[in-house]
Design a protein that fits this description.
single chain; alpha/beta; seven-stranded mixed β-sheet; 20 strands
Length: 205
């Protein structure tokens, strides 16, 4: 029989009141609160917290803060990751972030999904007499060398291909192919990113 955590990570309906899940959730929220109270000059202390909060993140990870994670240990972060203020990752399903990813302010990666029909969504009392609800989650994958600009929401089930840029204010509900410039609500691909874009930046030098 699958544990509630195994159900959660595999995209099945699960009970979020499960003791193992609640304990990790409380710890992650506590660690986020500690991190958010520290001045960025306290780098050693901040890194110590991140190692406990994000055991699957590369040591080069830099989070400006404040940060908000549901579990932390379900998020996998590659090399040279940078996130600006107010990063939120609700990692009820696995979140995979590649190498050299930049994230702007107020970006949310949100894996939880609630049933659409209220009879499935509303709270109930489980067999232990604990008030809970039914939830499931869909993972998120962000490829290498991506840039997510400010005020972006990425929902569960989305994959963003290597080298893509997501414009400010986007709500991303569908996957984006590699090397794409995409933006909008809902987010759509505007065009491909090509070598011509390198020529444009060279004009500024």
């Amino acid at each position: 029989m699958l544990s509630e955590k195994e159900k959660m990570l595999s995209g099945k309906l699960y009970d979020p009141s499960d003791h193992e899940l609640k304990e990790r959730l409380r710890l992650a929220h506590h660690l986020c609160a500690l991190y958010n109270q520290l001045d960025e000059t306290k780098e050693d202390e901040r890194q110590k917290i991140l190692r406990e909060l994000l055991p699957n993140a590369d040591e080069s990870t830099y989070l400006q803060g404040p940060i908000y994670f549901d579990y932390g240990d379900n998020t996998y972060i590659g090399k040279n990751f940078y996130a600006n203020f107010n990063l939120t990752i609700l990692d009820c399903a696995p979140v995979y972030i590649g190498d050299n990813v930049f994230i702007g302010v107020n970006v949310s990666l949100v894996t939880p999904v609630h049933p659409l029909h209220y009879k499935d969504r509303n709270c109930y009392y489980n067999e232990k007499g604990i008030k809970t609800d039914s939830e499931y989650a869909k993972g998120i994958k962000i490829g290498n060398n991506c840039w997510l600009a400010s005020n972006i929401v990425i929902t569960g089930g989305v994959e963003i291909g290597d080298g893509s840029v997501i414009g400010a204010g986007s709500v991303v509900t569908h996957s984006i192919p590699a090397n794409s410039l995409a933006f909008g609500n809902p987010c759509r691909v505007y065009r491909s990113i090509t070598e011509e874009d390198r020529k444009e930046i060279l004009k500024l030098k």
